[in-house]
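User: Write out your own:

AI:
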Amino acid sequence: MTEEEFQLLDHPIQNWSAVQKSLWYDKKGDWKTAHDLIDQLDGRDAAHVHAYLHRKEGDLWNARYWYNRAKQAVYTRSLEAEWDELFKLYF
């Protein structure tokens, strides 16, 4: 799926993972639903998206915690660049 196709969707695809759905809701401007989808999940993928969401929220302490859980360096480029990289990883 291309990013253009992704952005044209009116709703996430049912068989997508919670990580993929979280990225979709975030892109559509629904941070809360994006966060709620991954808040209680284990695993590095969920932790990675969780870190991004907290960085977007401005909670850098919490973001650092989740980057550590994801075994990822704290991302220092723009939020848009990070979302693009997450999209490439998980789609």
About this structure: The radius of gyration is 12 Å. The chain has six helices and no strands. The mean pLDDT is 96.
